[in-house]
Amino acid sequence: MTQTQPVETIPTPRPAPVAVPTAGQPYEYRRAPLVEPDWTRFPGWRHITRDQWESAQWQRVNCVKNIKQLRAVLGDTVDETFYADLEADQKALATMSMLVPPQMLNTMVPHQPMSTEALLADPIRRYMIPVASDRRTDWPSHPYASRDSLHEHDMWVAEGLTHRYPTKVLAELLSTCPQYCGHCTRMDLVGNSTPAVDKLKLTLKPVDRYDAHITYLKAHPGVRDVVVSGGDVANVPWRNLESYLMRLLEIETIRDIRLATKALMGLPQHWLQPDVVEGLERVARTAARRGVNLAIHTHVNHAQSLTPLVAKAAQTALDVGVRDVRNQGVLMRGVNATSADLLDLCFALQGEAGILPYYFYMCDMIPNAEHWRVPVWHAQQLQHDIMGYLPGYATPRIVCDVPFVGKRWVHMLTDYDRERGISYWTKNYRTSIESADLEALNKRYAYYDPIDTLPEAGQAWWLAHRDD
């Protein structure tokens, strides 16, 4: 019997798949675990051990305070044009003296070879070590800029105690920090005098200043919230700071205490010292027992600043009982004023370092800061563009700190002249210097965009009124 051979079938050709274009997202999240940059890449730190690096004392002793010390660290990795640029700024324009902990310097140009071009472009360098070529020459300062742009000194009710909001005060315990930021809003008081700024001085002994604060707070039960700042509380000897905090906790009407310290990021080694950790635990335990919310507020402006040591310091504070560690950054051109930069930072803060993104302030109207400031409309756009990516509780508010008004979400203005860059704001409370001003709540208060961001007609108007 002849078997039937199978018939070979030829598959019907199928049309080639057509690629369907996808629009993608304006921002694509990519997890980026924190990394401690290798400090031995710097010629001046080639032989520094991990034990030295993680010592708060070593960090403080080896802070960079001048060009000579910076040159010793960087060696010949940058050329003389950079140092000349820096010297020009220090001699005529800088409102803050140079003070950069090794921890912060190590986060500059962290993942590529150091060079003049790379250092000039670095976002941390741009606000920690400003150079003359960074600053604007047409409008280095806004005509309405002032060295105490928020009038905090005018609102002192005791030396270093600003009563600006009805239920909150700012306690400036001292006038120094472990690091000096070029954009510092308290540049009239904090740090050493510079050729551009002769600083104010605290005159009372610390014990007398602290006594005056406590006396005022006991006499004003309407104050429930104290921001303990400076300067930076990391520069207060721990024994003195703990004593001050325990005295605050004895005042029944105080329900919130916030410790303001950029050093959690700039000098995390301080907050990891055993005596500081143990003392913070004592304060946190007392606060919890008395029903007081104790939080730490730090100041991180770029994701590069976040390293495993910073995350360890934040987690340690939480482990010993601090309720929250929150971040208050500042919007600055050339540093973080893009939605991608802000989202990268917020994901690193919230997801990698355990720090809650809380506020981003518009850079204040201080002298020689126009190259950093952004206009209100830009801040509004950034707030729009970062929504929807982060968890709601970790989505920061972008705020404008309006002189005589206080913090306002950037969409809360009542009127806005975009051509001249003048926004108008209202408020719902009186500061401590307006108790007799019956019209304080009926006024409109002005805030000003940087002039170089205005349309030509607006820039021409300001030029014509420059000397008014």
Automatic annotation (TrEMBL):
Transmembrane segments: none annotated. It comes from the Bacteria. Keywords: 4Fe-4S, Iron, Iron-sulfur, Metal-binding. SUPFAM superfamilies: Radical SAM enzymes. PANTHER family: L-LYSINE 2,3-AMINOMUTASE AQ_1632-RELATED, LYSINE 2,3-AMINOMUTASE-RELATED. This is Lysine 2,3-aminomutase. The lineage of its organism: Bacteria, Bacillati, Actinomycetota, Actinomycetes, Micromonosporales.
